[in-house]
Amino acid sequence: MVSLLYLHGVGNGDPRDAWRRALDKALQDVGYPGLDGVEVIAPKYPDVLRTDIADRTLRIPPVTTPRLSAEEQRGVRRRVERATAELEKILGEPVPASPVGVTDSLAPIVLRVLRQAHNYVTKPGIRARTLRMVLDELPEEGEIVIVGHSLGSIIAIDLLRRLPPKLTVVGLVTMGSPAAHPNLHEDSDRLEMKSPVDHVGWWVNVWSNGDAVTGLRGIWRHFPWALDLQVGLGLDHRTTTYLRSKPVATAIGRGLFGSLTKEIARVEGTPDVALNSLEVRLALWLAYAQFLRDHLKGATQERFGAALRVVQHEVLERVIENYQHDGVRIPQQLLDLRVSPDLPSDQDLPRPKPLTQLSKEEAVLALVALATANPVRPYEIDVPDDVRRQAFHDLTVWMGLGGGLGENLHIAMQSASKAVYPVDQWKLWVGIGIGAAVLVAGPIGLALAAPAGLAGGAAIIGALSAFGPGGMVGGLVTAGAITTTGAGTIAATLVSSSSTAEDVEVTVIQLLTAAILRSREGLEQDLGVWLAMSEIQRQTGREVARLAAYSDEKAPGVEALRRKARAADRAMAYMVKNRLVEGLTDEEPKGEEPFEE
Fold first, then answer.
1. Least confident stretch, 77-81, 434-438, 571-575
2. Contact 568, 533 (CB under 8 A)
């Protein structure tokens, strides 16, 4: 059973426990049990806060948290971030900043809170006696949720590193905290806590858009691992008002009783429904990402696997939610890949079944998308070149197409990257995938973002419009999308000022990689690749001519357009030099007469 520690703010300590009645009702309103049966610890220390104790024999309780190695600290940070991300989805979006005015009548309250908070931080006697009073009421072991309001949040923060070693804090909820005020941090590092603490599960800090005690801001600067959440309670600083708010009650309830839905909601799948093209790419992405993880080593492998766990959960849930909304039948194979957010970190992720239905011709574009992807976007983890090569080999064997295709894919990607990027820059791109999350945000994003009723090229354009092409084009426009939806329309999107030079470069590399791979595998070339790059070249050239007539010679916008044009120029020059498109070389075919009109 999880216990609750409540730490009050300034004043008389709420002798009638109005806070408890407010929280009990709020918990039930959001679907949790009330406080009946919960051990509640609520020490009252108003007299201590008002008096400066000069007893030099009273020592501040010692820090009990152990020192962690750098790798252990990284593990704690990832665990806390995973829990925080889940809370962020559950608690909802923060209330946008609003012009709630702070009235003169609030000044005495603010000054009193800040004065007592400053006294607590700077006067050892007050601090030592308050901490010892709280610690004396705590159990030596078990689990607790800590809730601190106003000055009580300062005490809670100070307490975190001084708890009994066997006592675990499931979650910390602070409300109306003045912890961001500069005068509480001058000449003292007592409230600085840049990294999460090993025995604390998560921390949510809630502040109202008109609560002057908070300085009208959260506490992120001093405590980057805390989840700051702004709520719309206006000027009200009372603890009962905070406790009645849905985000606060939900966070406390989750800490005391766990998730309202302990497991992923059961969804009925359809065993005999074959995977469509989107789902095939989704399976390819997961297989590729897991092969990458298999070949990574040590701490990088663990970190990559943890990131993949988060991304796999979020992507699958988004896909399935959209399917349910649209009444689409869900293949059982897709449901088998779902990941519970509470899955232990040492438990392996579900893997897709081998896909053997794709021919080499059909697989080229999907493989190219993977070759230029960051499979754990938005997380950035540098994957060594040899690991990518091994993963490509395993993937194409898994697809029944042979390891040679994977080796050729790796060579094609390197060749295309070298051709488009300067010699001293291409290696920086390969292995990181600037702007390219083709499988995670790409085909999935295209399918989910497109307006209802649109398909093919219309769906692609709808998705670009919905997400905005600036930062997303590299992820949303795959080589397959460009060559199947019409070069002119997509080129216009890429040339626009809202897309970056990296977006165009990644897209051109995708196209060129596909052409090189087809050549190495003896497959027929797709003329759409040449046409798409030609259109990019034409439109960027026209924009450069239009803007350069009046702009500064080195204007950033003009330079970006020139960089976009150079990407297409270099790729097309490579295609001509290496005879990737018939009829575009300067040499005449042997044994044939020159073409005459």
1. 434-438
2. yes
Q: State percent of the chain over pLDDT 90.
A: 32
Question: Which residue matches tokens 């912890």?
Answer: 179
221-237 pLDDT tens trace? 889 999 999 998 888 88
Shortest CA distance to 136 belongs to which of 39, 20, 44?
44
CA gap 255, 84 in Å, rounded: 12
Packing angle of the helix pair 107-122, 151-159 (nearest 10 deg)? 20
Q: What is d(CA 367, CA 285) in angstroms, rounded to the nearest whole number?
A: 9
Measured CA angle at 452 (ends 451, 453), to 5 deg: 115
Instruction: Please tell me the distance from the alpha carbon of residue 595 to that of residue 597, in angstroms, as a whole number.
Output: 7
**Residue 539 has what pLDDT?**
85
Answer whether 196's CB lies under 8 Å from 226's CB: no
- Tokens 């075919």 belong to residue: 589
Rg (CA), the chain: 30
- Tokens 């059973």 belong to 1
CA 22 from chain center: how many Å? 34
The rounded distance, in Å, linking the Cα atoms of 82 and 341 is: 8
Per-residue model confidence as pLDDT tens digits over 88-139 = 888 887 776 565 555 555 555 666 677 777 778 778 888 889 999 999 999 9
Return d(Cα 516, Cα 514) in angstroms, integer. 6
User: Residues with Cβ < 8 Å from 444, sequence gap 6 or more?
Assistant: 278, 282, 315, 318, 319
d(CA 310, CA 189): 34
What average pLDDT is seen over the chain?
A: 79
546's tokens: 């239009």
State how far the alpha carbon of 224 is from the alpha carbons of 174, 215, 306, 484, in Å.
Answer: 14, 17, 20, 45
Classify the phi-psi angles of 187: left when phi > 0, otherwise alpha if psi is within -120 to 50, otherwise beta. left
The answer on pLDDT for 152 being more than 90 is yes
Spell out the long-range contacts of 157-161 with Cβ–Cβ below 8 A and sequence spacing 24 or more. 157/191, 157/193, 157/223, 158/120, 158/127, 158/131, 158/190, 158/191, 159/7, 159/131, 159/134, 159/135, 160/65, 160/193, 160/197, 160/200, 161/63, 161/64, 161/65, 161/193, 161/197
Each residue of 41-88: pLDDT tens digit?
Answer: 999 988 887 766 656 667 889 999 988 888 888 888 888 988 898 888
